[in-house]
Write a structure and sequence with these properties.
Chain A is an alpha+beta fold. Classes of the chains: A alpha+beta, B alpha+beta.
Chain lengths: 141, 167
């Protein structure tokens, strides 16, 4: 594993909110990141069905998009979200972990463009999709 | 003769009980620690600072996902609140959970204007349009200064079907 990947992974694991939600970075390479978040009753948004709140999906998407930017080969030093749009296509199935893969598909000196997809165990039918732009702050060598 | 107006304590208690019930049902709102201040029918959401909300420990700054979640919660609760207000005031609010069903988020777009500082945050939603099936909401979040937003968002929501739509 390269230093960059190591640093990004350590950075992710040092984020208090991500750690609190049990997020695990399972893949990070060349502008693509995958993060898994286990099902947790604290995250329920609809008490009748046990479906996870959209806000928790946002937190997962945002973390994953940021990680994808950090792993881009152009070596950004840091990043922050400018905007993030999430489309909720269906309810996540209660009891199942969510997994998000984000791709940083274009990067300029100042801005990174990212898209992401979140799935549960039914990986053919995404739960949500996101598109976002992120700042680029400083280049690491 | 005209009916005398309801005593103010009775009105306040009825409104506060309904709000507490609406907000208290959702575990994720409890997890983030979001509460709602009420002035008449106007709601202000409050997100008290907690260490677990941090996304960038170096700055430190609130996690972007927390900001997004906070604004989405504010939108959904404000929308539900506006929907049940008339029934609440006319005394026709059903006590079962049907009246407290939440709208579903279709899409939600957040602008991050400043980093969220490690202190309390506030948000207020404006319902731009509320139809029978769809609603459009704009929400603003701020911290110390009402004029300096740290984030704003717009979202579209699918409304739960009301009693009159039941077959």
């Amino acid at each position: 594993m390269s230093d960059k990947v190591n640093i990004a992974r350590q950075f992710m694991e040092a984020i208090p909110h991500s750690r609190d939600l049990g997020m695990v970075l399972t893949e990070i390479e060349n502008g693509v990141a995958t993060i898994r978040m286990p099902y947790d009753e604290r995250l329920i948004g609809d008490p009748e069905t046990g479906v996870v709140h959209g806000g928790a999906v946002s937190a997962l998407m945002d973390s994953c998009c940021g990680a994808a930017v950090m792993s881009h080969p152009s070596n950004p030093g840091a990043t922050a979200t400018i905007d993030l749009r999430i489309d909720y296509m269906r309810s996540a199935t209660p009891g199942q972990a969510l997994s998000t893969t984000a791709t940083c598909y274009h990067i300029t000196r100042n801005v990174a463009f990212v898209r992401a997809t979140a799935v549960d165990e039914d990986t053919d039918n995404p739960v949500a999709m996101a598109t976002g732009t992120f700042t680029i702050e400083g280049q690491r060598r | 003769m005209r009916k005398p107006p309801e005593p103010v304590q009775v009105i306040k208690q009825r409104r506060d009980e309904a709000l507490t019930k609406l907000v208290g049902r959702v575990p994720y709102i409890q997890y983030l620690g979001v509460t709602f201040d009420r002035r008449g029918d106007e709601l202000t959401a409050v997100l008290p600072y907690a260490d677990k909300l941090i996304g960038n420990p170096l700055l430190p700054a609130i996690h972007g996902g927390v900001t997004s979640a906070f604004l989405e919660i504010t939108s959904v609760i404000s929308l539900s609140w506006a929907t049940l207000w008339d029934d609440l005031e006319s005394g026709e609010l059903e006590s079962d959970s049907r009246a407290f069903r939440m709208p579903k988020t279709i899409d939600f777009t957040v602008d991050y204007l400043r980093s969220g500082l490690p202190r309390d945050a506030y948000a207020r939603a404006r319902i731009t349009r509320s139809g029978r099936r769809y609603a459009s909401v704009h929400v603003e979040g701020w911290q110390d200064n009402r004029e300096k937003l740290f984030a704003q968002a717009t979202g579209h929501f699918l409304m739960p079907q009301s009693r009159s739509d039941k077959s």
